[in-house]
Protein 1
Amino acid sequence: MTIVIKECTLEDLHDLQIISYETFNETFKNQNTPENMNAYLEEAFTLEKLKKELSHPFSHFFFLYVNGEIAGYLKVNVNDAQSEEMGDDAFEIERIYVKGPFKNQGHGKHMLNLAQDIAIKHKKKRIWLGVWEKNHQALAFYRKMGFVQTGAHAFFMGDEEQTDYIMMKEID
């Protein structure tokens, strides 16, 4: 198995939109109404919005390729790109998604390790992320990787207010 992680550019915009829709829908469709899923997907992953995110100097997207196929992606934010104010020593993992057929093969760990390496390069002391309280698989993964819950915030899926746990990990 050949694994490659590559930073996305604007040339990857359409592929980013496809995997964003696919992985988000696959992960959350069974726990949300179709109306709320469609409302979120149509707002969060427009080409215009993704282009703006890709163009931000403090946001970075990465594709995970397995045997030449895009199997997942990672989005990290630093400084003013973070979705919440967490301080100058914090680094955000905003999105980490792996396609269903590639789950439970260590790919999430590869992307998490990349995020940690980038955080260290930026001289950050903490990595944080938000994860839905009902995403038990992701919660278990992040706990296994050393993250602890430090708070919570609201997340809107269409018109439904949900709770995301804020999880934090101290790094060296």
Note: Residues 13-28 form the longest helix (16 residues).
Protein 2
Amino acid sequence: MNDPRIPITSACRGQSKTAPTLIEPMEAHLSVSRTLEHLAADINALPERMLPVDSRLFDRITSLIGQVDVDLNSPLLAEDE
């Protein structure tokens, strides 16, 4: 399912000096895994449909979420899950 030019294996999930260590393996999150598998299948089947994000879309996204502070290291609250 993965493009042979971009090998995605558990070995690629090495630790980064800046990224936090994953507490749970990705396989524990089935909905995320399935979504990523479908996305990878679509990209592999129709790579010509991949388009770069243009500056107008980027500016729109930034205007919507640019002021939101997110701490990726803090756990979610129970009511957020």
Note: The chain has one domain: 1-17+25-67.
